[in-house]
Specification:
mainly beta, four-stranded antiparallel beta sheet, globular
């Protein structure tokens, strides 16, 4: 049992279905799985800026057409956004250079096909919900909420060699939690996982709650898990502050609606035990 608190941090109008976020120097960079904008929110001025990622960027895209950006990570002053891979239209990676404002698009079709081949997962079961880069490898967090229940972590090295480690997580009610995001803090992986009553990576189901947890980056063993809500589906995780006795994260929630309102939450874990 982890000693934690969960509080409302701020509310932002103009963003819906938030699926990932990065906190960096009093700014929040937020993505939405319904949108092709990158949202920049100035915490001090409470100002929201929408950055067009594609020529015809929209806030609410039809489900069958959306690129489904579920993962965002910061590497070398660039923000990388990854599509989930759950349909052929969701196999894009976009990068945004914070200094030059340059946006680049890359197809992930080949690498996602390699991930599917590595673990013998079907096309519709791939569902990448978190990603980060460390020690010359990309780490991709597969949400195993489909019928095959393949929840785990892919790693891809510089030579494009891929491996997969299956990870089982606790149940909330009767449904097993599956990854919704993950970040690296020093040498530890912190992750979010949600329980949703569905066996589809495409269709939403009843939300049963979310957990926070920690993985050993070398062995991928689960160090701890803690239920933090029985009603929210938290999909985005970023480090806010870390001291000797506590660590604070900011979380965003995908409420599975088209309403352009987002609440950012602050989760505090005590670490002095």
């Amino acid at each position: 049992m982890q000693n934690f608190t969960l509080d409302t941090f701020c509310q932002i109008s103009g963003i819906g279905a938030a699926s990932g976020l990065i906190f960096n120097y009093d700014k929040l960079f937020i993505i939405s799985d319904n949108s092709t904008f990158l949202y920049q929110y100035e915490l001090l001025d409470q100002k929201l800026t929408k950055i067009k990622l594609l020529e015809n960027s929209q806030d609410n895209i039809l489900k069958k057409n959306k690129p489904d950006f579920e993962s965002i990570t910061l590497k070398d002053n660039k923000l990388y956004l990854f599509g989930s891979g759950s349909t052929s239209k969701r196999e894009k990676r976009l990068s945004y250079n914070r200094e030059t404002k340059e946006i680049k698009e890359k197809s992930l079709e080949k690498i996602y096909q390699k991930l599917k081949t590595t673990t013998a997962i079907s096309d519709e079961e791939l569902n990448i919900e978190g990603a980060f880069y460390s020690n010359q490898k990309w780490f991709f967090f597969q949400r195993g909420n489909g019928s095959e229940s393949k929840n785990g972590v892919f790693t891809v090295d510089a030579q494009k060699n891929a491996t997969f480690i299956s990870i089982r997580l606790p149940k909330i009610d009767t449904i097993e939690a599956t990854f919704t995001d993950a970040i690296l803090v020093e040498d530890k992986i912190y992750f979010l996982a949600a329980a949703e009553n569905t066996t589809s990576t495409y269709d939403d189901g009843e939300i049963l709650g979310s957990i926070i947890g920690q993985l050993n980056i070398t062995t991928m063993e689960v160090n701890f898990t803690q239920i933090i809500s029985t009603k929210h589906k938290f999909e985005g995780l970023t480090l806010y502050k870390k001291t000797q006795d506590k660590i604070e994260f900011l979380l965003c929630e995908d409420n599975d609606t088209q309403v352009l309102e987002t609440i950012i939450y602050k989760l505090t874990l005590n670490t002095n035990h």
